[in-house]
Amino acid sequence: DAVIRVRFSKSNENTEHDVWSRVAKAWATTNEEADAFYHMMDSRKAFPNTPAIANAGNKVACGSACFVLPIRDSLYDGPASITGTLADASRVHQYGGGTGFNFSSIRPLGSIVKSTGREAPGPVSFLRGYSDWFKRVSQAGLRPAANMAILNVEHPDIHDFVVCKEVEGEIANFNISVALTDDWLAGIDGVHADLWGEIVDRAWRNGEPGAFFIDTVNDRRLHPETIAATNPCGEVPLLPYEACVLGSVNLAEHVNDDGEINFTDLALTTRLLTRMLDNIVELQDYPLDEIRHAHHKYRKIGVGVMGYADALIKMGMRYGSPEALQAAENFMSFIQTVTYECSVALANERGEYPGYEEAAEYN
To answer: The pTM is what?
Structure first.
């Protein structure tokens, strides 16, 4: 209760219950929904992401945590230029979101810029510039700005990118990942072995760079547009200007005293959280009109989980054991099925999302 109050309470809120009441009312469309959302959070069965809690009820209230912004190879020429995207990202951070970028469109270090006749500084230089700026911007005043930088493995500056966080503390507000293609991976036993070894060694030393299997992501996408980047923690690949609102089901609160999964309760919680997140897509304020349009087109939400280790303790299972892996499969396959069913119900109730026909034709 103390942690919730310190992080999220407003001046007129004295208890954790006051916080959950505000959040529930902000993202509900009926009084019945507000009551259900309140009990879901107050019983610790599920929660929306941090911005949806912190910003609920604000004059400007954005409930999404994840955004991807495009970058063109232009210094200041309008939207999606290097400086234009920097300004857009700063606004996203002020609204409480984190941002992902793919820097691959930026010409490599040493290329001649025709307009000036000078050599281009390259994507890593602009990444450092972004990082220096974001040190001065926080996410809704709550936490340091979180970001993801991605560079395609075929980019001429890829080695400099792979080692750009060699010095501890540099580019500290960015995670970095290499976008790996199937064709490139097919050559790691030969022509690409040295770079692959460098990527693996750096990942072993400090966890970065991550691997973004860009062809796999796009092979499995459900819409015709191509994905080039993810949100800061990599769990949500998104289109340019797209956002995603996340939430987590607390698995530990869905295990009975006898150690069995309470699937009836889990279904109820999953449906409530799915509806809450879809409400947020509609009710929240957006940092940019481009983001509003992109998010509404496919209305992406992310229903995740928390409390898995605690659930295993209640179930008497060792983490990593075959039984624990089967429990994870049981939890997630059930949650996936229920979210799909709830999405169908929402479509019948509220109408299909605007990009449905495009997505259906593509699939």
So the answer is: 0.92
